[in-house]
Amino acid sequence: MGAKREVGLWLVVLILLLGTIPVARGQQQITLSYWHHIHKPANDLEARLITEFESRSPGVRVQVTLIEDADLNTKLLTAMAGGAGPDIFNLFDGFFTSYVTSGFLAPVDLQVFQAPSYGDLTSRWLRGSLSGYTNRGKIYGIPSELSSYGFWINAKHFQESGLNADKDAPRTWEDVARVGQKLARFKGNTLVRKGYAQSWRFPVRYLIIFDAMLRQAGGQIFNAEGTQVLLPSQPTRKALQTWVDFVRRSRIDDPALGGGKRAEEEFGAGLASMMGSAGSWFLPLLKEQYPSVAPDARVIPYPRFRGGPDIASDVYGYAWMVNAHGANQKAAWRFAEFMSSHQRDYINIGIFHPRLGWFDTPEAKNYPYFQLWVSELSKGSYTPRVVRLEEAAAVIGRMIERASIDGADVAKSIDEARQELQKVLR
Amino acid sequence: MDLLRLRYPQRIALAGLLFTLPAIIFFAIFFFYPMVQAFFMSLTDWSLLRPPRFVGLANYAGLFSDAVFRRSVAVTALYVAGVCGGAIPGALIFAVLLRSAHRLHAFFEAAYFLPTVVSLVVVSILWKFLLQRLGLVNLILGGLGVEPLAWLASSSWSQLAMIIVTVWRFFGYFVVLFLSGLAGIPREYEEAAAIDGAAPLQVFVKVTLPLLGPVLLLTLVVGVINAVQMFVPQYVVTRGGPADSTRVLVLLIYETAFRYLRMGEAAAMSIVLLQLLVLFTIAQFRLFGRVEPL
Questions:
Q1: Is the dihedral of CA A391, B234, A40, A74 positive or negative?
Q2: 3-state secondary structure of A251
Q3: What residues does each domain of chain B span?
Q4: Cys-Cys link to B259, which of A89, B156, B255, B265 (CB 3.0-4.6 A)?
Q5: Comparing C-alpha atoms, which of A394, A395, A402, A401 is closest to residue A418?
Q6: Binning pLDDT at 50, 70 and 90, where does residue A11 land?
Q7: Which residues, in sequence order, are CB contacts of A186 under 8 Å at separation 6+?
Q8: Looking at CA atoms only, how far is residue A189 from chain B in angstroms?
């Protein structure tokens, strides 16, 4: 063997040996699996934060899996049930009950958060914002978002229709129908631009919006414990009739237009003049994906019923939760702690963190419509808490579609929903 | 065992058994065992999250009082009837015409079979775009003076849309089946009938169609089974909506099992579906199976 080749061989051996040093030191490589729903601005921000986290946490790597929002719960539940769930995930608060009652969630590691007690941890967040992730005195989730829907209007469409976006903006659902008729555009008998886009096809959206309208009308879908169905009722008929009338009477919405797009996508594409299915998180998305509509978009308070209580859209949130059967729970909570400590970064993508003091930061206060969002958040109720939320949401969706699309009798449709919901709660 | 001491018929039987053994083992592990498992699962209340609890026939009893299940059975029946009623006669007529078309034979063979080889998800996404309110189908209809149809946002039109998508998908496969059947019919039979003065339609009805009996039966059985098992277009295009109008039984089973984690109920639905399919297949064989093979 030539001298050069021998030196080369020794170099290779040396490099290989150097590569094993961390292992020799006993430092374990941890790969944290993290699941999050697809939302580009948040995904981009978190990719940057994860790089920072990895550089600060030697030996820890975060493997991100992004899943469509509508499918995340199904995939996550199936994976958890099969023992293959991720170490940590970011989940809609409405699903919390089913996860915690199934024993899937690990309680927050107080040591990681340097909190002597759950009470101390709670005191660091806005009052009540951790209650949605609390079960039997223990906290199981660190909030990453607190949202409620605002009402979005296209000022340019208002102007084109001879309306003033400031003076004529709807305050009640009755106004939405009236103003929407002026904004809607038809080609022959076919609606080609919606006066108001409701959210179709997505069960949890149906639930969030209908629940808010029902509460505004004076009713509720379930009792506070989520154990009893409170349909049918006069408020339910009022809320559903209002939804139906937008399609069949005032004809300001048509589920056929938009072809399965979300309401906010229709608004962004200029296919709708008003929309009430997006929170503060939509503004950066609107600017990035729909730059031609973004300058004309305005946010106003969610409509109420004329003469009804001052209740805003439902409040909902997302939180980081850790798999109780995961092998890397400590590292997972460290990751959650790191992410939640960067709450100020999230304001750039319109995501509000319910951390105490966050609402007083200049970044938050300078966010467009900040006072409106805060006011609406304080006037909304949390999305109903039931173990089988997704199934309940599908029932509400069917009820709305039967009455709005098929023209089924409103009372009959509500009664069918009552029977189906009772089965869901069993 | 000394194989040489066996008599000839026994050796033949043993050889047959050995040859078929791999297939039997495969069937037992991947088909029979899951079916038995599904049956036992159907007798339990199981959410995947907790151990199963035996509930006897409660899941079956619950199914027949469940409006969603009843609706889904009706939707499935209409869908299967629409798919088979549209695809089978259409494919048969096309195959007969194709047999006599010599010039463009190769082009048509490729054209009609293309949808069969394309991924069903791709097919579904393609049709989802075509059937939009402002999509190509409505654009063409608009050119003919027809108002745009709510293909995917009306209970009646969305059912028809799903049937159209599936017929488009199955058509080429059925044409191949019929072409192979037609290839087995000697031309002399039809020529003899024509010489005897039979009109082309009479030749087709009295000679060709009876001789195609076994192929028709096969196509019908395969068509029904395939259509019953289909749920990708409904999942991708309409997600079972609007108002359950396209929620076929297999989609409902999938959702009940994996979205709502009601495994026992989903298994009971699967068993009911299996029984319906077996009964339907037996009925088809009884009705159409008396035709003499070619």
A1: positive
A2: coil
A3: 3-41, 65-288
A4: B255
A5: A395
A6: low
A7: A192
A8: 8
pLDDT at residue A18 greater than cutoff 60: no
Chain B: nearest CA to A59, how far in angstroms?
A: 33
Q: Domain B65-288 falls in which CATH fold? A: MetI-like fold (1.10.3720)
Q: What is the pLDDT of residue A4?
A: 66
pLDDT digits (tens, 9 = 90+) for B57-77: 999 999 988 999 999 999 999
DSSP code, position A117: S
CB pairs under 8 A between A and B: 83
Cα A144 from Cα A319, distance rounded (Å): 5
Which region, left, alpha or beta, applies to residue A260 given φ > 0 means left and ψ of -120 to 50 means alpha? left
C-alpha distances out from residue A397 to A86, A232, A243, Å = 30, 16, 12
Within A218-361, residue ranges assigned H as helices are 234-248, 263-268, 282-289, 329-341, 343-346
What pLDDT is attached to residue A22?
Answer: 47
The CA-to-CA distance between both ends of chain B, in Å, stands at 43
Q: Do A78 and B258 touch (CB under 8 A)?
A: yes
Residues of chain A with Cβ-Cβ distance to B67 below 8 Å are 416, 419-420
Average pLDDT value for residue range A273-292: 95
Answer left, alpha or beta for residue A308, where phi above 0 means left and psi between -120 and 50 means alpha.
beta
Q: Is B152 within 8 Å of A260 when comparing Cβ atoms?
A: yes
Q: What is the ipTM of this complex?
A: 0.81
pLDDT at residue A380 greater than cutoff 50 = yes
Structure tokens at B276: 């319906």
